[in-house]
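STRUCTURE REQUEST FORM
Protein name: Macrophage mannose receptor 1-like
Source organism: Salmo salar
Requested output: structure tokens
Priority: standard
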Amino acid sequence: MGSMLSIFISLFLSDNLILIRENMTWNEALSYCREHHVDLVSITTELLQSWVTERAASATSSQVWVGLRFTCSFHFWFWIRSDAGCYQNWAPGNGSDSQQDCGIAGAVETTGRQQWVSLEENQRLNFICYKCSGDSGEGLIHL
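Status: completed
Returned output:
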């Protein structure tokens, strides 16, 4: 029974991610996801990372925004929708190992090792949203 539940949860969660092939800043992407779907995706497990990278491979930008943000006030990275968790996938020289400035958000590389990178939040990239099960996302690219 436990493995059936795991399979159901895996299928349910992987189907609730949508790649938006429109270039927006991080704040625009956040607003768009919250208005039209649920939120920018938060990657807290290796399994979720694999679903995100599967969708990111079809992006038209070299990275895709995710719900990862740096706070200048407290000098740490956080997921906008979840506890931090232990899973991390930072590219070398990014994340907590690097010097960060204000106005930085996290993205996933769409090629190569598809690791997390820190970018200025005013860059315009594709992005990945959580969506509700019944959300058709009409006019958007479903993968």
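Reviewer notes: Residues 2-130 form a domain with the Mannose-Binding Protein A; Chain A fold (CATH 3.10.100.10). The longest strand covers residues 63-71.
Form closed.
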